[in-house]
Amino acid sequence: VTFEDVIAEPPSVRSFDKVWFWSHALFEVSRLWCYRFISLVLAVEFEDVIAEPDGTHSLDGVWKLSYTTFTVSKYWCYRILSAIFGIPVALLWGFLFACISFCHIWAVVPCIKSCLIESQCVSRIYSLCIQTFCDPFFEALGKIFSSVRVALRKEV
């Protein structure tokens, strides 16, 4: 499933180029990471589930048939679930990331910019207070304790 399969805008009605670009990028990233996560969770091998201890083995025919049944059923179950839920889940993820992008663009970034502007004013006042009150105090303490000499002796 590609982005164009899920979100298809007709050529006559297109959103802004950057909106289209970022929507496509978010869709692809979410699709990739969701697929990796699900693949990691579902990446179960036959030997991980059905493991016969050394010295105890079933007949070769039973083992091969069990292996084939397990592998084929896992393969087809995944394909059927992907066919049924793949597109709706991709649509939901696309919607979720669209909402997150909207909130980020219209709420989060402006709040961060506003905080940065306000913090510059506060940081200048804080800097002036430190330079005015603390710097002279610590310089005086430094001059007082600059003549102190410490000698360590090891007594046996």
Largest sheet: none
The low-pLDDT segments are none
Query: What is the average of the pLDDT values?
Result: 77
Number of helices: 4
Output the structural class.
mainly alpha
DSSP E strands, number: 0
* Element-level helix/strand string: HHHH
Oligomer: single chain
The CA-CA distance between the termini, in Å, is: 80 Å
Using only CA atoms, what is the Rg? 32 Å
Spatial shape: flat
Provide the β-strand percentage band.
under 5%
Written overview of the protein:
This protein is an all-alpha fold. It is built from 4 helices and no strands. The chain is flat. It starts with a helix and ends in an 11-residue tail after the last helix. 1% of the residues are buried. The mean pLDDT is 77.
Question: Brief overview, please?
Answer:
The protein is mainly α and 156 residues long.
Structure keywords:
mainly alpha; flat; 4 helices; 156 residues
Question: Topology, please?
Answer:
Elements: H1 3-6, H2 17-42, H3 46-49, H4 60-145
Helix pairs in contact: 2-4
